[in-house]
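Risk register update: the risk of archive-format incompatibility is retired. Evidence:
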Amino acid sequence: MARRWWFWTLIIVLTVVVVVHAFLAIWVRDYVNRKLSEIPGYRAHVAAVTLHLWRGAYQIHGLDIKKTNGKVPVPFFAAPLIDLSVQWRALIFERAFVGNIEINRPEINLVNGSSEETRQAPVDAPWAQKVKQLFPLKINRFAVHDGEV
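Archived output:
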């Protein structure tokens, strides 16, 4: 009888963990979309977020940033996969709160037009501050794989 009690307790705990993990991923996706929607002059969207709690990481799938107050027909930035993670070795041994960012197949379109409406060159863009809010760690490693400018 005691074995059966432990079995059902384990099943319930595992079910709760899986459900919380699924809802946490949805909540993080909505949080990221909400923060990105606060960027003035840009419209941004994230399709999905995958959490990897054992790595201290999350992956952003389908990031798309477009300039809304201009006449530039191409999106400003698009990336099918962005991986943001904590460097555990630096955190444990050096007590440094640093992380890694890996971007797979990003596309960034910089357009230097004659007016503000035809320009898409973010020298002092407010989106850089939003990136810092979404990943507040010091970036120790930044990798871009198969990117296009």
